[in-house]
Amino acid sequence: MKQLQSESEDMCAFPAESAGQDADIVVLGAGVVGVTTAYSLARRGYSVILLDRADGPAQGSSFANGAQLSYAYTDALAQPALLAGIPAILAGLNPAFRLRFTPDPDFLRWGLSFLRNCTKTRFAANTRAALVLGFESRLAMAGLRDRHPFDFGHARPGKMHIFRDHASLQNARDTVAIKQVANVSQELLTPAKAIGIEPALSEIGSFVGALWTPSEEIGDPHRFCHGLLAILTRQFAVRTKFGFTIAGVDEHKNRIVVRSSDGMTVSARNAVVCLGADAPGVLGKMGIRAPILPMKGYSFTAPPGANAPKVSITDSARKIVFCRLSDSMRVAGLAELNNGDPRPDPARLQLLIDNAEAAMPKAAAYRETSAGWAGLRPMTANSIPIIKRARERVFLNVGHGMLGWTFAAGAAERVAKLIEAEVGNPMNDRSCIE
User: Fold this and answer.
1) Cα–Cα distance for residue pair 25/259, rounded to 1 Å
2) Which bin fits 399, alpha (ψ -120 to 50), beta or left (φ > 0)?
3) Cα angle vertex 135, ends 131, 137, to 5°?
4) Are residues 273 and 161 both part of a single domain?
């Protein structure tokens, strides 16, 4: 069976003579969402051009994020528990969560929509909808890894959320109940049982319980993008245009023309926008609204400490993630809504390091951290990505929020299936897809 699958994939690779100026589809953005979208389209037989303003893939929010593939932890950001904490956020009393208030209409519309989604009913519906996409992503990623077994540090260590007060533990219990309709395997643990699974928790101080999800996975998104891009260019003849800063996108009767700031053009019959937090700016010039706000987050990478956890750990009180990536520890956290500056703030980065060391003193060699990183996560008000046909030749795959790495493979399959249904398959060969 493996042999037949391999031969089928070779048949689906687009022939070398397709490498002209025009393509079936141009994918705008080469982060994890863009690269996986290019893959889902190319293996269906579409000729694809992938472009990005950086000099290579995964240079933005996919570069050094939390690295967790949290397929079962898809809780919507808008929820009653967060609503209760908004006054403290507005007053600047929550160091882990900042909000940059601006009077522009887009921000106000997004904020009102977010507040409407903070009800119990909408939180449950949004969380379940995201859970469906999470499960689709897990299946899509498993299929991709089976067809192309390249190394990106993938593992399945499980994930544990630590709760330091009874109110947050009860919120977790309520959310577990919401997901039971999907038979999600999650278990609330006593501190003793949690320490039994992950001994490193014995040194984190007092906590009242933990949520254990044994099926959760990890992987380095930067390595993943580079590995998959090598397959795309070699096996599927996907062309790339890096260093391509988009100046405009022109819609013609039978094609899309993307112009760069230095006069280059790329043309295709259709376009898929996978530009993350940059999507509203590009789409706005086309008269297409994308209700997305940037959520700035930080991370650093350090050697593992003397008592580094093997399980992925989230300290829910401090909003910090600890993820063991082979011979390093990735630590991510903080949230700054409506901050569009991607540059790391040294003071905020130091806050993350200090808080991480206070939470798990021996998890990492904190004096040997990397330079640090910040990325802009594209947030919708309901935490559900926007995957749709926006114009006759323009499709969107944007707004994946804090779960871009998790959602990428499933979202790519969704938009590829949408395009296949709307514009047809160029090869009319369903044998290309398992």
Assistant:
1) 15
2) left
3) 115
4) no
Residues 321, 298: contact at Cβ < 8 Å?
A: no
Range of the domain at 250: 2-61+222-290+384-432
3: left (phi over 0), alpha (psi -120 to 50) or beta: alpha
What is the 3-state secondary structure of 403-418?
HHHHHHHHHHHHHHHH
Residue 391's beta-bridge partner residues?
394
Q: Residue 427's closest CA among 14, 26, 17?
A: 14
- Residues facing 211 on adjacent strands: 161, 188
Local structure of 45: helix, strand or coil: coil
49-99: pLDDT as tens digits: 999 999 999 999 999 999 999 999 999 999 998 888 888 887 778 888 999
The one-letter code for the residue type at 50 is L
Phi, psi of 68 (to 5 degrees): -90, 135
* The Cα angle at residue 130 between residues 348 and 399, in degrees rounded to 5: 55
**Please, where are the H alpha helices in 100-253?**
105-116, 120-147, 166-179, 191-197, 221-235
Query: How many structural domains are present in the chain?
Result: 2
333 and 312 together in one domain: yes
| One-letter identity of residue 124 | A
Tell me: the pLDDT tens digits for 95-145? 889 999 889 999 999 999 999 999 999 999 999 999 999 999 999 999 999
Residues 280 and 315 in one domain: no
